[in-house]
Amino acid sequence: MNFIKPKFWDKKNQSLFSILLYPLSIIYYFIIIIKKKISITKKCNIYIICVGNIYIGGTGKTSAAIEVFRILEKYKKVCFLTKGYGRKSKDDIYLNKKNYTSIRSEKVGDESLLLNKYGPVYVTNNRYKAIKNIIKLGYEVVILDDGFQDNSIHKNMNILCFDENSWIGNSNLIPAGPLREPIQSIKEAHLIIIKGKKNLTIEREIKKIKNNLNIVYTKNEIKNIRELKNKKFIAFTGIGNPDNFFKLLLNNNIKITKTIIYPDHFQYTKKDYNYLLHEAKKNNCHLITTEKDYVRINSNYKKKFYYTKINTILNKKKLIYNSFKKLHS
């Protein structure tokens, strides 16, 4: 979904915009209920782990999917499955090797290229059909990057991702707020991953809905911090929660002269590159973006940009494997 997140979504108090849009959220809620009622859930002969969210964008979902893959690949033959949001192609594409550098994000989506740095990825618009093909290819586990809202497929394990800073925003459904479905949907999860610091208030809210739910925390570290120090940057990005990226830079004492925000999954054009390079020259500084943005940048321009290489650290890796083992037995 190509959008820039409205600021009022994360205000704890209801704003005028959220009040005005609330009737549309009610309509959206009824659409969700109807879709769930009419959906026929199909079981597949393979273990399916869904790494999803109910807060739209910026919850660290793709990073979490990568960490789950890294934990399970030691024991099982695992394949990522994604729709490749933001891509122009409608074809099914199977990235059967690690790190395809010749495929552009317009064809498979930025998230697919990030996932492919760690393992095989199947990109499709039809998850059920793709899963049948993945089974034929000999895989034992499928990791869905997103898909919590897809009720047509039975998932053996649901992992929900949240950001500690955003949590559930103003708690409203789209478009009055950032939620894709009500917070009570947490009861369908088997594990929660929270990006950020331990937050007992959030944990209590989760436990009220499902008391026996395990909660894991992650934090991001910048691996290439040394090459970024002692430089001035214009930071730009087209991701779901741009503020998290800017905060990460500032918290690591990386000097930011200016920030520029584009819509989520934005496909940069020559005009955009020229504008960014002009701004950098005018402000006598460099340009920096996220790794997710960097995979969307045309290869002719990549050398002109810096990006943050992120290492995601899970605080309870064993807990994820033990949850998988328990549900799989």
What features would you describe in this structure?
With 329 residues, the chain is an alpha/beta fold. The longest helix has 23 residues, at 16-38. It has 2 domains: 47-220 and 313-328, Rossmann fold, CATH 3.40.50; 224-308, Rossmann fold (3-Layer(aba) Sandwich), CATH 3.40.50. Helix content is 33%, strand content 21%. The strands form 2 sheets. The protein has a 9-stranded mixed beta sheet with strand order 3-4-2-5-1-6-7-8-13, with helices on both faces. The protein has a 4-stranded parallel beta sheet with strand order 10-9-11-12. The protein is built from 11 helices and 13 strands.
Task: Provide a compact summary of the structure.
With 329 residues, this protein is of the alpha/beta class.
**Shape category:** globular
CATH class of the largest domain: Alpha Beta
Radius of gyration: 20 Å
List the total number of helices.
Answer: 11
Q: Based on DSSP secondary structure assignment, what is the total number of beta strands?
A: 13
Distance between the termini: 36 Å
Element order, helices and strands? HEHEEHHEHEEEHEHEHEHEHEEH
The number of distinct structural domains comes to: 2
Low-confidence stretches: none
Which strand order does the major sheet show? 3-4-2-5-1-6-7-8-13
Global structural class: alpha/beta
Helix content class: 25-40%
- Quaternary organisation of the protein chains: single chain
